[in-house]
Amino acid sequence: MVKIEGGKIKFNEEVKVKYEVDVLVVGGGTAGFGAAISASRNGANTMLVEKYGALGGLVTLGLVCYMAGYPEGIGKELLERLKEKRGLGENRICDPEITKYIMEKMAIESGVKILYWTYVIDSIVENNEIKGVIIQNISGRSAILAKRVIDCTGDAEISYFAGVPVETGWDLMDGYNQAVSLDFVMSNVDLNSFSSSDFYSTVQMKIEKAVKEGKLPRLVEKGYLGSFPNRPEEKTEVYVCTAHSRKCRTTDAEDLTRIVIEQRDQIQKLVEFYRENVIGFEKAFLSYTASILGIRESRRIVGEYKLTGKDIALARKFKDAIARDTHGFDIHNPIDDLPHIKHTHLSQPIEPAFCTDKEREDGRICCVKNNPKGKYRAYLKPGQYYEIPYRCLIPKKIDNLLVAGRCISTDFEAQSGTRLIMTCITMGHAAGTASALSIKENISPRKLDTEILREKLIKEGINLNKEPLCYVKGSPQDIPRDAEFVVETKDGEDEIRIKR
Ligand SMILES: Cc1cc2nc3c(=O)[nH]c(=O)nc-3n(C[C@H](O)[C@H](O)[C@H](O)COP(=O)(O)OP(=O)(O)OC[C@H]3O[C@@H](n4cnc5c(N)ncnc54)[C@H](O)[C@@H]3O)c2cc1C
Fold it and tell me: Which atom of ligand 1 is nearest to the CA of 422?
């Protein structure tokens, strides 16, 4: 019975417990995929709940098809399975449909019970312990009880419902979130005549000119596009990640509505622009836009440790590390139509970061004016890597809950690095293994012996005991130990490169 009283709705409801499992993973994106598989492989009765009808989250439903980050464990397995099925190109771009299929197959083979079309609407908490969640789907409302819950919603929804403290956006830019993009696919592109070097050198200039003449809304200087594997060269399909909305509040449904409408408008204009200006696109058309909005950053939990931009620049290592990456920062400017931000700021140069106080070549301010952190731009040096501690996956305040993916405990700058696809799978992998281990040992995941966890993860293919190869331009490579570096400004973007 629902009652209206003084502008508020009051209702008492009994909800049936429909499932009881060991480990419940909420969110079937890359992190949830890794988490559910590893929990199940480690003997836990595991359920994965996803609000849409496929696994992959941003990768598949969001058409973010470039699988960057360091591939280890389940992430590496996924890449191998995709290659076997001709679903992965040399450039690490995956076919989203083959990816949905393979992810689902791998989860089912590992014993995971998947429940699609199901939205988690609340967390069940007793004495600061999560006991399960309330779900809503076509069958109505019910509850799932679980010994451990892993929040892989990208937006930290389960943690937020449970009362975990969260943060969002960049305090240095009025709390706005990273720019949002709706990715889209253009078909009938002639790759024989299209050249990506042309694209980045000449097309971007044309975009600049069109913007100055008011023919295009200002988008991003370096639009990204990639061709799907195993399509005919003369009639191929490419996914495009160029449209950008700024000043976004990604935890506000009204703003998300504004953004998606704005994105569709940008995309119409961009498609016309590509057809008129880009060689190879003359006969191309817009075949579809992503089913979900490309949200790079929304809520981040406050956990037992908060990874910072400084940790990344200084390639920090941790005793309880569960994942690593060699890719630095990638902030899509929250407010201004300026190039991506690939650095943090320090008050003085500190090794091993690559630090410079040189102005950008085109004289534009690339970040926050008079950054309070200092005047030196600090980059993660190629060949260096940073680690993510297990404590970033453990939320403050609530027990038996772990978090993995783009919403772990970091500051805004660090999140721009940790959010990569392979890194999210590895974090999920670690959270799944940790959940299963903590059940076996009958202790809270917070109290788990991280040495035992790390040993287990190493056995499962996350090589925490070996240095990762540097990941540059599409694949891992060795960087000479005596290499010298410079920051070049190319196509409007700062890029740290080996000195030639
Ligand atoms: C436009 C864009 C471009 C990017 N480019 C790259 C790139 O080139 N390379 C790269 O490596 N990374 C890139 N990234 C980053 C990367 O794609 C993401 O950070 C990563 O995929 C996030 O994975 P996730 O599992 O944490 O979250 P998501 O992929 O967001 O998955 C979360 C899942 O949880 C589900 N969910 C959410 N709430 C609920 C709920 N209440 N109940 C049930 N289910 C729920 C969602 O439906 C979704 O499937 C990009 C991101 C964006 C947005």
Answer: 11
Distance CA(1)–CA(446), nearest Å, equals 40
**What pLDDT is attached to residue 490?**
65
Tell how far the Cα of 482 is from the centroid of ligand 1, in angstroms.
Answer: 37
Pocket of ligand 1 (CB under 6 A): 26-32, 49-52, 57-59, 62, 64, 66-69, 119-120, 152-155, 157, 181, 183, 241, 294-296, 405-406, 419-421, 424
Note whether 87 and 119 are same-domain residues: yes
> For residue range 272-289, what is the model confidence (pLDDT) as tens digits?
988 988 888 999 999 999
CATH at 85: 3.50.50.60
Q: What is the pLDDT of residues 36-59, one digit of tens each?
A: 999 999 999 999 999 999 999 999
The strand ranges marked E within 117-255 are 119-126, 129-137, 140-151, 166-168, 184-189, 224-227, 236-241
Reading the block at residue 22, the tokens are: 């060991």
Give the domain extent around 414.
14-169+297-327+387-475
What confidence tens digit (pLDDT) does each residue in 159-217 have? 999 999 999 999 999 999 999 999 999 999 998 888 766 666 667 777 778 877 877 77
Gap from CA of 62 to ligand 1 centroid (Å): 8
Same domain, 308 and 429: yes
- 483 CA distance to ligand 1 centroid (A)? 35
Nearest one of 400, 432, 402 to 37, comparing CA atoms:
432
Measuring from atom 35 of ligand 1, which residue has the nearest CA? Answer: 27
